[in-house]
Amino acid sequence: MNWLLVIVGAMVGAPMRYLADRSVQSRHDSLFPWGTFTVNVVGCLVLGVVTGAVTEGAASSQVQVLLGTGLCGALTTYSTFSYETLRLAESGARFFAAANAVASVAAGLGAAFAGTALAQAFWG
Hints:
Elements: H1 2-26, H2 34-55, H3 61-75, H4 78-90, H5 94-123
Helix pairs in contact: 1-2, 1-3, 2-3, 2-5, 4-5
């Protein structure tokens, strides 16, 4: 049953990633990959909330599989983040490459912590 939950979550998360990435990136005339940055940070926030909800007993492990593994797994993209950072560095945009790496990790961790704190405040 868990594999079906992962598939259903991913069927929603993958198109969300594509549409959100294209929407955000089209609004910025910059080398910085704002679309990928946004979906990764949002995914970290959602995963933090889901994990916090499960920890507080407000959500089941099936919700964690559906939303955490399926949706967030397809919504976020470490491979695209890595590729875009490498592409920036190779094209001479080293500042943007470093900024992407540092900001993505810091914002992702911050969003995950904020998500778990929000879940604890709401359900704890």
